[in-house]
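User: Design a sequence. Structure:
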């Protein structure tokens, strides 16, 4: 249904205006860089928030916060680490906020992955248990019980259409209603490279907010539409999603990072850093710089600037904590591919039956060896 919500539109407009303001018309956006010392992730996360002005400052006027980690699959080494989300949840709870954790994972074995083959589906009877399985396998179900906070499956439930005026791919996006009701969305990605988008950080992490019951698991339908605008199919559309949400805090988990052919087939290593900011473009730009990428190398930044979002350069950002040059560690770059180049053999079949196993048997046979090629692309 079309959502009629004056308060939500006012909040979204205010956030967009703040992003557009940039360094030239107001204070520079602040981004913090904190080294993780002696594996004390919680202390580093707290310091990163303190450098932004503290939890009361970053949540001023906020009662409810949704934390959105990157739980792309059950592959623990490719997902946001539990310690980072736990630390953030506890910080927000101490500040008196109502906290939830929301995600719409891309895939999981025995749901829309079988062997080396990956499938699309809109079936709620597949997506709902898949999401619960991912939460359980990665420890988020236990965390939610311990902290008494709800887990939100962003794939299904009550969905609403949110307008995206001047959107590049969509003029409206279907979202889980909770995303329109929450006061603040906090993106908590893992620091990784990406074979479509070059990097996946705070903004790209919002791909997991596209409900699979509309845009399919692995967001196949979304990518198909986005590829008509630009070849990565994961840049301009991300800016649309950022503008549709109340993304007011990004905390990037660089405890472990992934380089090379991310977001799942790359090499992981200990980066030991937390990057945080209330301006998602600024936070991502600083993180990308730590990874050895210039802003001009990241298509999402170019599309964000085209939409009027700022900053456009590192010089427009106030960096607190560690200097960039002291932390920067150039990542091995991904082998970039265009969506339409892999579309014929990666996630190109849709599961349409309720019984996963029954639907998959013939699809695996149809894909044959090409299913393996798709898995090796590593887009999960």
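Assistant: Done.
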């Amino acid at each position: 249904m079309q959502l009629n919500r004056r308060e939500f539109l006012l909040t979204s407009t205010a956030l967009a205006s703040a992003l557009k303001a940039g360094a030239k018309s107001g204070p520079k956006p602040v981004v913090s860089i904190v080294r993780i010392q002696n594996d004390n992730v919680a202390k580093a996360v707290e310091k990163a928030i303190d450098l932004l002005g503290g939890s009361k400052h970053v949540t001023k006027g906020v009662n409810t916060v949704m934390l959105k980690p990157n739980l792309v699959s059950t592959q623990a080494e490719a997902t946001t680490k539990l310690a980072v989300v736990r630390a953030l949840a506890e910080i927000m709870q101490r500040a008196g906020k109502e906290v939830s954790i929301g995600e719409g994972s891309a895939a999981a074995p025995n749901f829309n992955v079988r062997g080396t083959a990956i499938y699309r589906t809109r079936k709620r009877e597949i997506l709902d248990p898949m999401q619960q399985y991912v939460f359980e396998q990665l420890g988020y179900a236990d965390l939610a019980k311990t902290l008494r906070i709800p887990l939100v499956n962003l794939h299904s439930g009550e969905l609403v259409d949110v307008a995206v005026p001047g959107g590049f791919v969509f003029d409206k996006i279907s979202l889980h209603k909770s995303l329109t009701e929450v006061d603040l969305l906090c993106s908590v990605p893992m620091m990784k490279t990406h074979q479509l988008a070059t990097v996946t950080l705070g903004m790209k992490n919002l791909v997991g907010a596209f409900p699979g019951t509309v845009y399919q698991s692995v967001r196949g339908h979304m990518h198909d539409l986005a590829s008509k605008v630009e070849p990565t199919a994961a840049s301009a559309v991300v800016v649309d999603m950022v503008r549709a949400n109340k993304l007011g805090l990004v905390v990037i988990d660089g405890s472990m990072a992934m380089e090379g052919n991310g977001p799942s087939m790359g090499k992981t290593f200990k980066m030991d850093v937390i990057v945080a900011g209330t301006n998602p473009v600024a936070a991502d730009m600083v993180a990308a710089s730590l990874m050895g990428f210039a802003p001009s190398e990241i298509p999402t930044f170019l599309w964000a600037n085209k939409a009027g979002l700022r900053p456009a350069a590192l010089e427009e950002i106030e960096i607190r904590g560690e200097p960039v040059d002291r932390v920067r560690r150039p990542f091995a770059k991904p082998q970039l591919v265009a969506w339409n180049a892999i579309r014929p053999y990666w996630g190109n079949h849709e599961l349409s039956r309720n019984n996963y196993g029954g639907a998959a048997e013939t699809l695996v046979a149809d894909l044959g060896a090409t299913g393996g090629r798709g898995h090796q692309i590593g887009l999960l």
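The chain has one domain: 6-377. The first strand starts at residue 30 and ends at 35.
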